[in-house]
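Hi V.,

You were right to ask for the full record rather than a summary. Here it is.
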Amino acid sequence: MTGCGFQGQQKAIGYAYTGPSALNLRNDLGLRATTTATVEHGERLEILETKRRFVRVRTKQGSEGWTDSAYLLTQSQMDDLTRLAERAQGLPSQGVGTVFDTLNVHTAASRTSASFAQIEEGENIDVVAHRVAEREMPGGEQSSEDWFLVRTKENRAGWVLSRMVLMSIPDEIAQYANGHYITAYHALNPERTSWLWTTSAHARQPFDFDGLRVFVFNERKKSYETVFTERNLRGYYPVEQSGDSFSAVIEEKDGSLAKRTYSFNGSKVKLLSKEPYQAPPALPEVGVPKTFDTTAPKDANWADRARAFAEWWFGI
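Predicted structure:
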């Protein structure tokens, strides 16, 4: 199908792409309306009609139906998502997390942003960034929430509410959190008997952690013991581990950032160096266009985009 359409076919007034992993189109407004088609994330749709926030669309197979415009993305948003995923692939994991229920992945750190994928119960994800975002409450009051930028096994990247993610550090260590939020962790040896974690005593802080701690398993006592701790920090990702050392980015008393590198030898931790740290460029943002595209992508360009998108999305 094209924007001009066949003879007698309604002409498209705009173009968009499916946001969620799967989206049901319906023959009328309302959740009780009959489903006419189900489209997958990234499928191009022709917009035929709008009613407030709802739109009637046509699929490439010719099926038509209504959906909420909040579930649709523009070409620029699709391009932004690709850039975000490419950037996330180069960020070091701050720990593997999992979820206990299906969790929506958003294009931005906002509940009102489009959801384009889902993390299934028990699925593992890599946490790669953290952000505190403002949220408007009923009555116009302002609040804030913690979000994680996560990377899935398919190398998709998007934002999820951090309180819905459980960091998969062993329970024998997690029990020592004492109500603090675990924000990053790494095993410090192949036997996984020594661990580093960072925590935050309070939610919605303008930094990623305020405490750093190293645990070592005591064979005689059959329990983990703390061998190193630092508190009252203003720490930032990335927290990284390599061989017998680890590093973290800490804000110094003068407000500058320094990468602190520590050595770890059995049960001893020693500060090796402090080096000035330059924060990386800001993460790509997925924009929120006010209107949908009104010009159809050229066939050749669309084929190239689809091929590139498939290579990134499916790894083919």
